[in-house]
Amino acid sequence: MTDADDVLRARANLAAATARAAAAERRLQAVRRYHELHQLLRRFHLSRTSGGGVQLPHLLDAGTLSALRLKTVDWVSTGRVGLKPLWLGFISLGGECGILEFDAYLHGAWEMSERDHSVLEQVCWEYETFGSL
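Predicted structure:
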């Protein structure tokens, strides 16, 4: 064997090790998202189906739902707040997405801009503080 063969073998081993490390990192991130999701579910006393048979979004497994999104989905799905009044409160404070995009955001199928996310946080804060929209 020559030095060139050793170098080629070392490069191949390095590439294989790098691929294994990347796969391990993806698995670790998935496990972290899984645990974060379950902490949020416990925090908001939710499960895959809450007591009334309300279906939470199927994207929960992907870890895409923030605490804000979980809270608003819970409010809308349990009838605590209607989708339209929540959206109207959002629009009245300067939110810029339509009701379809707003509903898609709540169900994990669309992402809001950072600005719209901040507006929704304000709407939720006002609702929790003052009890109405």
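Summary: The chain has five helices and no strands.
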